[in-house]
Write a structure and sequence with these properties.
Blueprint lengths: L1 H17 L6 H32 L3 H7 L1 H6 L23 H8 L1 H10 L4 H30 L2
Helix pairs in contact: 5-6, 5-7, 6-7
Length: 151
């Protein structure tokens, strides 16, 4: 086992040594400056739209009718999926129960149980968390068996 780890470490170090930067630091700084200018321009346009919306009390359709070119240039949309921020009660923080159980085990199941309101969706997510926990434990045991058998 030590032989394989030493070989992997040596391979990793040799790859790091062989890789040389292909770009000049001045080129990177120039690209960074260009990107920051573009970002500043877009933020300035967003501030103009924000000020216009607040002053005239506009909604999306009236904003699009009055300033369609700016709305299209900034790729603004009337439907925005904010996902985790909208507070879905079907998953804690928008993360499925299986992932909570798989990554955090029993602590993940406890987080699901405490974070959700009582009901059928909570039972479903806790069950998924238990399945994720079991899969995580089985993969961990399988990985340990493979590593120990390789010695």
């Amino acid at each position: 086992m030590k032989y394989y780890l030493s070989l992997a470490f040596l391979f990793f170090v040799m790859n790091l040594w062989a890789v040389k930067p292909t770009t000049n630091p001045e080129d990177i700084l120039q690209k960074f400056d260009e990107s920051s200018i573009i970002i500043d321009q877009e933020l300035e346009a967003l501030q103009q739209i924000n000020q216009k919306v607040l002053e005239e009390n506009l909604d999306y359709t009236s904003l699009q009718a009055s300033d369609a070119a700016l709305v299209n240039d900034l790729n603004l949309s009337s439907s925005v999926d904010i996902g985790i921020l909208k507070g879905d009660s079907d998953k804690p923080l928008g993360i499925p129960g299986f992932v909570w159980g798989f990554c955090l085990g029993l602590i993940g199941i406890l987080i699901i149980y405490l974070a959700m309101d009582e009901g059928p969706e909570r039972k479903k997510q806790v069950r998924n968390g238990v399945y994720g926990c079991l899969v995580g434990v089985l993969l961990s045991v399988l990985l340990q068996v493979v590593i120990l058998s390789a010695q």
